[in-house]
Amino acid sequence: MFTRFQYLEYRFGLCAPFLPLVEKKLLIRFISSHGNRSVLHQDVYRWNSNIMNCFRQGDVEAACRLFNEMPMKNLVTWNCMISGYVQNQKISEAHEIFDTMPFRNVVSWTALLTGYAKCGKLEQARDLFDRMPERNVVSWNSMLAGYISNGRIDKAEELFDGMPIRNSVSWATMIDGYLNYGLVSEAQKLFNQVPVKTTSIYNALLSGYVENGYLEEACLLFNKMPQRDVASWTTMITCYSRVGKIESAKHLFDKMLEKDVAAWTAIIQGYLDNGKIEDACKLFEEMPYRDTVAWNSMICGYVHKGMLDNALQLFMQMPKRSIVSWNSILQGYVQQNDMDRAWNFFENMPCRDETSWNTIIAGYQSGEALILYCRMMKDGLKPVQGTFTTVVSVCGTLAIISWGRAIHLSVIKNGYEDDTMITSSLITMYSKCGFIDDAKLVFESIIKRDTVVWNAMIVALAYHGSGTEALALFSSMIQAGSGPDNVTFLGILTACAHRGLVDEGWKYFRSMEDWNLIPEPAHYACMVNLFGRSGLLNEAYNFIKQIHVGLPTHAWETLLGACRIQGNLELGELVSKEIFSNRSLNEGMYILLSNIYAEKGMWENAASIRAIMKHHGAKKEPACSWIEIKGKLSYFMYNGRSHPQIEVIHNHLQTLQVIMEEIG
């Protein structure tokens, strides 16, 4: 049961959000005369404030403990709990609090609605919206923002048209929604319909212009704005920075009468994006006040430049670190391929999010990535595009089809079956595992195919020896209106090489100019491969002598290999001399040249090459292979005995050898 004072205080919490300021003050004065003023204004307020501080710091347990220990709670307390849970992505707990509340107001309903919208559960959000006993403009705006943030622009339009009253936030949210999805003309039309254009509405259109690359329109709008705030100036600083006009951005920054931390961060980010890290560092040192975002911008700038030591120095100086700070340093270790330090850093992180897991998984291009993927899923974190792209790629590299199929199913469950980066990775994975028909099924299931998807299928067919099919698919790609890129022609030239189509290969190689594409070293290497596979060794050598680009090592290996297959010792020696004069041989080339001599019976020459190889410290890495049996991956090293079932395997091999000898 409530005492009279508790009831009055509770009713105040229920109706306070709707009262004009004068009435609110009168009600507080009335309650204060009938109860302990310190309890109302100090005690409960202090408890509520501490609860929200705990939530802001991500300490949900501490917030719950405070809530349970409170001697008395008002409606604001319960609403704080709902909002706090929502901020920390704990929607189930937020709903549980909502269900146990003795009283609710429009703030309670709106807070929970916002939570469901933020986590993509639009049906539950709409159900709450429809069941609300009363709505205000904030409720409508929350539902509107939910539709927009989840890509339901059609539903957002329908809701916006049915709003009984709109404020500047409503108009700005809808304009921003159109611009987020590239619907610039719709945003312009809506902007022209706004009855009273506030600065926030101007800023919504201005920011959208910048994000969509409408830089001229952004400048015109900025110049005709009746009033500008700090956000307007900051947006234009970002605008000029993105098009490389950093001096113009700095000129705007210097003209600003009032600069907040966002403006400082924008100009610093501009210098970083334009490769002027020293200027960015100088401005960072001049900042009168730095928030976590400013620190993170500078740290990220150092990481992207490969200056990890500088990033670490700033990281250690930070008064308060966020998850972004930790993730940036983790990214730095991964970029340097220092996976030992990356792993130690990852293990010592106070908390991890999806980005942390995705970064560490991307660093391991091997079986470790799959193990980490399983750990991530076990911890209840949702994989994103980068996660799936990495683990699918690993499955293809290791040729473990059972894992690949399982991850493909997870891709579908998480709604990424239409993501072109992931689907192209799936095509490549099935191809590398030898399941070209499955690769075709994935390709055929894609409704909107971009160049990346077409490339993946063309390359898959090329490497499976289906050159004619790959060339036919290239024609379909052109007819569909997708322009080829350099990767497309790598696939086409590979297809020609596998089929020995020399004339067609020449035709496609020369046609790159028609698409304003400049052949890269990899394309020249494909042409060498085409000539070599077709037995045209002299043509391959002459082709190399005519070009003026540095060929990748494997192109020379291809030509040397072709010399070995064709038994052309003379050209093989000539090629090796060219390589010796221009670059150091790797172990593969030493072995190829040695084998050419050995197959010709020139044992002294072969031994001489091996001696040179040893003198230069080049050594052949031990061979490694793996096989997947019943979903389990087994690794084997040349001459290795570390496999747990090595004795059983050797016994089976000896048995097979006896049977083979008996059969003859």
TrEMBL record:
<feature type="repeat" description="PPR">
    <location>
        <begin position="105"/>
        <end position="139"/>
    </location>
</feature>
<dbReference type="Pfam" id="PF13041">
    <property type="entry name" value="PPR_2"/>
</dbReference>
<feature type="repeat" description="PPR">
    <location>
        <begin position="485"/>
        <end position="519"/>
    </location>
</feature>
<feature type="repeat" description="PPR">
    <location>
        <begin position="74"/>
        <end position="104"/>
    </location>
</feature>
<dbReference type="GO" id="GO:0009451">
    <property type="term" value="P:RNA modification"/>
</dbReference>
<dbReference type="Pfam" id="PF20431">
    <property type="entry name" value="E_motif"/>
</dbReference>
<protein>
    <recommendedName>
        <fullName>Pentatricopeptide repeat-containing protein At4g02750-like</fullName>
    </recommendedName>
</protein>
<dbReference type="GO" id="GO:0048731">
    <property type="term" value="P:system development"/>
</dbReference>
<dbReference type="GO" id="GO:0003723">
    <property type="term" value="F:RNA binding"/>
</dbReference>
<dbReference type="InterPro" id="IPR002885">
    <property type="entry name" value="PPR_rpt"/>
</dbReference>
<keyword id="KW-0677">Repeat</keyword>
<feature type="repeat" description="PPR">
    <location>
        <begin position="229"/>
        <end position="263"/>
    </location>
</feature>
<dbReference type="InterPro" id="IPR046960">
    <property type="entry name" value="PPR_At4g14850-like_plant"/>
</dbReference>
<feature type="repeat" description="PPR">
    <location>
        <begin position="198"/>
        <end position="228"/>
    </location>
</feature>
<dbReference type="InterPro" id="IPR011990">
    <property type="entry name" value="TPR-like_helical_dom_sf"/>
</dbReference>
<dbReference type="InterPro" id="IPR046848">
    <property type="entry name" value="E_motif"/>
</dbReference>
<feature type="repeat" description="PPR">
    <location>
        <begin position="291"/>
        <end position="325"/>
    </location>
</feature>
<dbReference type="Pfam" id="PF01535">
    <property type="entry name" value="PPR"/>
</dbReference>
<feature type="repeat" description="PPR">
    <location>
        <begin position="450"/>
        <end position="484"/>
    </location>
</feature>
